[in-house]
Records
---
Amino acid sequence: ILNVEQSPQSLHVQEGDSTNFTCSFPSSNFYALHWYRWETAKSPEALFVMTLNGDEKKKGRISATLNTKEGYSYLYIKGSQPEDSATYLCAAYYGGATNKLIFGTGTLLAVQP
Amino acid sequence: EAGVTQSPTHLIKTRGQQATLRCSPISGHTSVYWYQQALGLGLQFLLWYDEGEERNRGNFPPRFSGRQFPNYSSELNVNALELEDSALYLCASNADPFNEKLFFGSGTQLSVL
């Protein structure tokens, strides 16, 4: 059974702090890594999709890196704002016989003003 | 452009009944994915339809089934409902299953009494 793991499970930071989360995944048959932000009472919204080892993506204050050889991705938020409060989900897409996108359980970020 | 739409928003059923959940993908998207989020758990992969065919299913019993129509909309059917089927059911779509992010609907909250 393929397991995508995220850490920490939850995080409380002060406004202005920079923070980062980790997503770990099995490397075998790995194809792509997705990051989503899920705010309360809304739908999950995609942040990034990365496929290549060493990929780095950036969207405003949020950036992500990917290491496919060791099976991890980091999501960074610079200068956290209260509106960044959400659950951040990563998901790994596996091809071959697995052929599905598997989600981690998420990191809940709370940014205190 | 309309996003992914799901109906109904809420559904209340009793044990043993059947539930039908509906999803309309974004125009031009041929792939539809169904995920379940039960209380305290992450997003669990249920089903993936592409071009009218079931491409993959998750580790759920056969009473979870679905279909995709020629217009790419999709239905999820849950037969013989059990209490533990109470969950948020999310539908997502994209045009390229291998490379593109998922666009999520706002979900159907199913409660089984």
Note: Chain A touches chain B at residues 31-32, 34, 36, 42-46, 48-49, 51, 89, 91, 93, 95, 99-106 (CB under 8 Å).
---
Amino acid sequence: GQNIDQPTEMTATEGAIVQINCTYQTSGFNGLFWYQQHAGEAPTFLSYNVLDGLEEKGRFSSFLSRSKGYSYLLLKELQMKDSASYLCAVTSWGNTPLVFGKGTRLSVIA
Amino acid sequence: GAVVSQHPSRVICKSGTSVKIECRSLDFQATTMFWYRQFPKQSLMLMATSNEGSKATYEQGVEKDKFLINHASLTLSTLTVTSAHPEDSSFYICSARQGTQPQHFGDGTRLSIL
């Protein structure tokens, strides 16, 4: 089976940097995804990591350590519109569907 | 690119009604489509996986006779909630994938059964 853990809620200040952690256990790991989901809306794709290291995309970066079963999403220069849930999801060999963590609800305050 | 269209976005209907939700990949061929359900403040829970032209694979606990899935073409999958009851009220989200590319999600359908 698969198990994905991430904090339930986080609060950060506008303009700051926040790191959202995700740990996972899965057999046959084949990639980790981060999605953003605003309340009442569907998730939107943010990033994909399959090799160790940091992937940077604008204000968002995602890091993966396969040996530690660990990833984080780094959001820089936070804006109010970044208030959303951030979902960590993993897929396994055999092109399996994404299995999602429960999501981290991020609140950006002024 | 990678646009997935889901329709309708909102449905309100009486108990006992059957509701059909469509999911279309607009600019790519979706070899696999997925249907998720999300209750308030909870994570997305996978209901079923469907590959074009074959029967859907349902997750444990999901009634295949209640949630009928058809994936007749590489761009269209439908989910029919048969004889819906209030406990079926939820946010239903489809996603589509081409080969090993990331899954892209439709906008979701908010289903409310009175």
Note: The mean pLDDT of chain A is 92.
---
Amino acid sequence: QVQLVESGGGVVQPGRSLRLSCAASGFTFNDFAIHWVRQPPGKGLEWVAVILTDGNNKYYADSVKGRFTISRDNSENTLFLEMNSLRVDDTAIYYCARAKLRFLEWPQGGFDPWGQGTLVTVSS
Amino acid sequence: SYELTQPPSLSVSPGQTASITCSGNHLENKYTSWYQQRPGQSPIQVIYQDTKRPSGVPERFSGSNSGNTATLTISGTQAMDEADYYCQVWDVSTAVFGGGTRLTVL
């Protein structure tokens, strides 16, 4: 079945870096855009970034632009999020989520499925 | 930036119909998705492209979108439907979520 498994979360000091991974299985990875979405403890969902199928087209939320980099390895069916200059307000559960629809229809269909999430805590 | 507004909470009795609204400027011109998130779990998509139901989602979940308001309707609400619900759209080059609605079934 379709599965997304995040890893790489942990506790990190403000200003430091962290790299998250998301291993995908059960579908043709190359056919789908993939997103990162985060959720601060006790709060709502916030979209972070998306990377399209070829890995060259990427979009970011203003809150992370210039600090976070999304990438993918289609040969390994893996998604990454490189997070630099981390701030206390980056503390959240980070989910990877596949686009519901393939190829160019990806903006229309939202996110399905989601991974189980990985917790990132930024604290001194 | 585009904004989506949801009521923070809604209560419904078992067996009744729950209607959760999501408001945004000219929302009918965008495709709306809805997500259910039970406590301690990852979100699950329950509606996409305004009205479509992913495989495995019960038929009691339905969606509509007209004017400035999208609505998630749960008919014959069950105790297991108690959860947070989020609407979401894509605007220009950004995904936008509503603030979420906590549905209580009592």
Note: The two ends of chain A are 40 Å apart (CA to CA).
